[in-house]
Predict the 3D structure of the following.
Amino acid sequence: MKHLPWYWEIKRSGSGPNYYLSLAFAMTDAELGQWIEQLMSADYNLIDSRTWAHKDNRSASYLNVTVYPEATITIELGWGVEQSEADELIQQLVFSSCSSQLVRWHVYTGGEGYSGKDFGQGTDVASLLEYCRQA
């Protein structure tokens, strides 16, 4: 699988502490929920009604996936720690049958008590892949 470093610009700038990638899809919330549940079921635990945590999360770093209304998910890398699991998840999202329904993506930083900062954004898979190629 090809590495898609969506957080490259955050890392280069030294921003953080947490890295976020928000993905919005042109599908119903129910369709997105069903699709995400299929992707998450093997390697993630549902920790509340809308957030999945990777089973290998460590106390200092973590990978969470949160499903929001309006068919949006957010991938969070806690403390900006690169994780191969995040790469695998992005691959599954970007190169799946639902990828053509990606209508908006946004990379940003922040965290509880930290001011956020915006980085890349776009409207389809092609623009996300182009953003990653700039790394």
